Amino acid sequence: MDVLSDVVAVTRTGRSRSAYVRWHAPWRQEFASVPGSAGFQVVLQGSCWLLPSEAEPVQLVAGDVVFLPHGSGHTLADSPETPVTAPACGPDDHQPTETYASDSVDRSGDGGPVTVVLCGAYQLDPIRTHPLLLTLPDLIHLPTQAGCHPELSSALELLAAEVENPRLGTDAAVPALLDALLLYILRIWFNGRSSLGSTTGWAAALNDPPVTAALHAIHRDPASPWTVAKLAAEAGLSRAPFARRFALLIGQPPLGYLTWWRMTTAARLLRTSDAPLRSIAAQVGYTSEFAFANAFKRTHGTAPGTYRRRS
Q: Most Cβ neighbours (<10 Å): which of 1, 24, 236, 297?
C-alpha cells in the first residue's frame, strides 16, 4: 500500500459514523470535543456558521467541507448570535442527532431557511496515530470551488445519497465512501501545502520523490531487511544525503521510522487477527519471536501477548 492509504487503514479503528441532518433557522448545534477521533462537516444546502472553540467564526456555504483531524469541539449555527437550541452531541449520541434531523425541518415551508449538513466522525487509535496526522491543524476548511476536486464532490454526492436514503447495500457502501472521503480530504490538503512551497514536514515529504520512494518501500514490505543503504538505493540517492533528507522531512531517521511502522503494524495484527506471534513477527521483519517481543515491549510498554488480551 502507499503511505497515505496505510495511514488511514492502520490509524482508523471501529466504525465510521455519519448523519444527514436538516435544520431550519433559527438553530444552533454544539458538537462535543472527542479526543481520539476525527470529524467532518459538509454543507449540502443553504449556509451556516462554524464556531470553533478557539478561533473566529467562519461562514460556510453549500459545497464547503470542514475537517477536524483531532476531534476538536465546535458549533454550527444559522447565525453566530443564535442561542443554543439543542444539547451538545457526540459520536455515540445517535438518538438526539436522529431526532433532531427528522423533526427540525418545517416541511410546510413556513419556517426559516433550511440548511442541510452531512456530518460524521472517524474513530482513531491514539496509540497508533501516525505522525502525518499529528501535523495537521485543528481545523481544515476546504471552500467550494467550481470545477475543483471533482473526486471529492463525487464521493460527497454518493455518500449523501446513501445516508439520506438507505437501501440494500448501504451498510457496505457508507464505510467505503467514508474512507474515500477521508483520503480525498487528506490528499487535497497535502497537495495544497505543497503548492504553497512547504519545505519540511509530511506535506513536503509526500511531494519529495526520493523520500516518498523510500516510504513506499517501507510500507510495501516492512518485513524486508532494510538498511539505510538499501532505502537510499530505493530513493536513488547515496546513503548520507538520503539519511539527512529523510530525517529533515520526516522528523526521525529512516530506521527509526521503520521500527515504529513495524511495531504499529504488529499492533494492528495483534488486535485484528489470531495469527500466532511467530507469524506476526515474520510479517514485520523479525526472524526471532523473542527479538520481536522485546522490540514490541520497548515501543508499546507491554508484551505482545498481553497487548492482544487487553485489546
A: 24
Name which of 15, 34, 20 is nearest 88 in CA terms. Answer: 34
**Model confidence at 276: pLDDT above 80:** yes
Coil, strand or helix: which one is 168? coil
Is beta strand 114-123 parallel, antiparallel or unpaired with respect to 17-24?
Answer: antiparallel
| Cell, residue 210 | 526520493
pTM, to two decimals: 0.80
C-alpha cell at 7: 495511514
Written as nine digits, the cell of 186 is 487528506
Q: Which of 76, 92, 96, 73 is nearest to 84 (CA)?
A: 76
- The CA-CA-CA angle for residues 227, 232, 233, to 5°, reads 100
Q: What is the tens place of the pLDDT at every residue in 185-216?
A: 998 988 887 666 666 688 888 889 999 999 99
| Of 147, 145, 12, residue with least CA distance to 71 | 12
Would you give the DSSP letter of residue 54?
T
Which residue type sits at 49? W
Query: In this predicted model, what pLDDT tens digit does every residue of 104-139 receive, in sequence order?
Result: 444 444 568 899 999 888 888 776 778 888 888 999
Place of cell 442527532: 97
DSSP state of 128: G
- Interatomic CA distance for residues 291 and 304, integer angstroms: 11
Asked if residue 26 lies in contact with residue 86, where contact means CB atoms within 8 angstroms, the answer is no
222 and 255 in contact (C-beta within 8 Å)? no
